């Protein structure tokens, strides 16, 4: 199948509102994600996110984003309640849909961009039992813009994590959130 046709078929994936993407994984978040969520919910950052150890989150040990804290390496992700995302409603909807993290916005798509920000690879995430079905799907320009934004926010956040990790003194979660400007 030609790449253009493959992309077109993949882009037809439509959310089935099964909620599995909000139940199975722990979505990692950036400082920009947290700022949007704080504004949307009125909750402080430490009530929205938590620090996850390598045994609690599917995050490769060599991947960027590991935060060195006084009590070990952690990745920051959305807090869970009753084994599901804190922000998921009983009817399996996102309570902060317009402010949801970038990784949630691009799901179930796996997007790779070239240096110019053009989509070079596109596939559907198969790591989560997603009930997506064929339908209207998403506009390729929207997905490309969103993937570019996600990549830019991730890169900026990883640079901040790198600066934090170079510090001699290690603090805890609240210290890290203060470092990011997300807590008093």
Give the SSE order as H and E letters. Answer: HEHHHEEEEEHEEEHH
- Globular, elongated, flat, extended or rod-shaped: what is the shape? globular
Separate helix tally: 7
Structural class: alpha+beta
| Proportion of strand residues | 15-25%
Mean pLDDT figure = 90
Low-confidence stretches: none
CA-CA gap between termini = 54 Å
Rg (C-alpha, Å): 17 Å
Helix content: 25-40%
Estimate nothing, just give the exact number of structural domains.
1
Strand order of the largest sheet: 2-4-3
- Major beta-sheet overview: 3 strands, antiparallel
How many beta strands in the DSSP annotation?
Answer: 9
Index terms:
3-stranded antiparallel β-sheet; 7 helices; 184 residues; alpha+beta
């Amino acid at each position: 199948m030609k790449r253009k046709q493959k992309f077109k078929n993949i882009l037809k994936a439509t959310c089935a509102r099964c909620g599995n993407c909000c139940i199975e994984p722990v979505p990692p978040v950036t400082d920009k994600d947290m700022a949007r969520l704080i504004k949307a919910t009125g909750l402080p950052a430490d009530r929205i996110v938590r620090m996850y150890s390598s045994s609690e989150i599917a995050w490769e040990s060599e991947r960027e984003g590991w935060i060195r804290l006084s009590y070990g390496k952690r990745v920051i992700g959305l807090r869970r309640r009753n084994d599901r995302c804190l922000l998921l409603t009983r009817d399996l909807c996102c309570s902060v849909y317009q402010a949801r993290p970038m990784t949630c916005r691009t799901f179930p798509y796996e997007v790779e961009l070239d240096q110019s920000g053009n989509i070079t690879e596109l596939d559907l995430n198969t790591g989560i039992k997603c009930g997506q079905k064929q339908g209207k799907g998403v506009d390729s320009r929207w997905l490309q813009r969103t993937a570019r934004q996600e990549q830019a926010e991730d890169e900026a956040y990883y640079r901040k994590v790198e600066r934090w990790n170079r510090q001699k003194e290690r603090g805890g979660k609240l210290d890290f959130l203060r470092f990011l400007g997300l807590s008093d």
